[in-house]
Specification:
358 residues; 12 strands; Ribosomal Protein S8, Chain: A, domain 1; 2 domains; seven-stranded mixed β-sheet
Length: 358
């Protein structure tokens, strides 16, 4: 088991801001990238947190990530947008794309937004949260252009990415519903985190490079690569294909059907549907029925091994409250990778450690 550090929210942000400046990013880009990554750590999604920066560094150095790029409209048909992320930081182009989609949904009642050529959009739930804050519902289908990491149901090797599916629903007077999950049984980044910590995976999540069951997460991280399995067998596999077709082939004009694993870039395509609930439904009825469903579900007596019924978004909110109070854990391997990334970006690793208090 790898040792690690527990770093305060403010200290981690300061250290990662210094690191992201090494990309040559402008101030607003530094802010958006770091806020997004640290928020992922705070909510317990270390797979999508600051540990991604070493991969971003490799992508940047090979030309797969373009700092200070902004989203460009390819098609603007009012309630329908097709956008090009120009290989910019997903934290920037995703934010800009959602601002455009939200504005159109408020104007037209809905917006269908297709975003392609975005570098790693990170936690897709962040984009659903933007819609929620605007009082809007959003549904997201996302594909991954990186390397195959997930096997189809019944397959023995990787054929697509973790292809997340996300839904955000605002709830008046309550915490929102935020459903955000990889269509694989576990996110690829969680395999990286487990590998860095020296942990094993529970059975039924991975296969090795020969298609045999394994509990060693290295087969999802370093060659020879095996594959992560889809969640729910055929269900996750089917939804992954849908995300590939809608987020990739339709939204981005670029789906994954390649064996080339040489490049370090992580590009995403995302099809987003944004809906103003007040434009399509009676507001009072929607709010009443939403609260009734939530209360009905939460009233279920917890079964053995559970303290209560949780809805989508609850675990993240609980983890965030705890980590804001106690600090954010970063395993030693990931921390060394971050310092290594600083060196590759011509920064002083010691200054990063000093800012983090490590």
């Amino acid at each position: 088991m790898a040792k690690g550090h527990v770093i305060g929210n403010a200290q981690l942000r300061a250290a990662m801001q210094e690191l992201v400046r090494g990309f040559g990013s402008e101030a607003r880009e530094v802010e958006l990238v770091v806020d997004n990554l640290v928020e992922a750590n705070l909510t317990g999604h270390d797979s999508h947190g600051v540990g991604m920066l070493p991969r971003y560094t490799e992508s940047f150095l090979e030309g797969g990530l373009v700092p200070n790029a902004h989203v460009k409209a390819v098609l603007d048909a009012g309630a329908m947008l097709r956008l090009d992320g120009q290989a910019g930081f997903g934290q920037v182009v995703g934010h800009e794309a959602m601002l455009m989609g939200i504005e159109r949904a408020k104007k037209h009642g809905t917006c269908i937004m297709a975003l392609g050529n975005a570098h790693h959009l990170c936690r897709i739930g962040a984009w659903a949260e933007m819609a929620i804050e605007a009082g809007l519902i959003s549904v997201h289908f996302t594909n991954v252009i990186s390397r195959g990491s997930v096997a189809p149901h019944g397959g023995s090797d990787a054929r697509f990415g973790t292809n997340p599916f996300t839904v955000g629903i605002p709830v008046k007077g309550r915490e929102p519903i935020l459903l955000d999950f990889a269509t694989s049984v576990v996110a690829q980044g969680k395999a990286r985190v487990a590998h860095n910590k020296g942990e094993k995976f529970p059975p039924g999540r991975l296969i090795d490079n020969h298609g045999n069951p394994t509990e060693d997460p290295k087969f999802a991280v370093v060659p020879p690569i095996g594959a992560i399995l889809p969640f729910g067998e055929h269900k996750g596999s089917g939804l992954a294909v849908v995300c590939e077709l809608l987020g990739g082939a339709l939204a981005a004009g670029r789906a994954w059907h390649d064996t080339d694993a040489s490049k370090r870039r992580v590009h995403n395509g995302m099809l987003t549907v944004i809906i103003d609930p007040n434009a399509i439904a009676d507001q009072a009825t929607f709010e009443r029925e939403t609260l009734a469903v939530i209360d009905w579900v939460r009233a279920s007596p917890p079964r053995q091994g559970f303290d209560k019924v949780r809805l989508a978004g609850d675990p993240e909110r609980e983890t965030k409250a705890r980590r804001l109070a106690e600090g954010i854990p970063i395993d030693e391997t990931t921390w060394k990778e971050l310092l290594g990334a600083a060196g590759k970006l011509k920064l002083d690793p010691a200054s990063i450690g000093k800012l983090a208090g490590v």
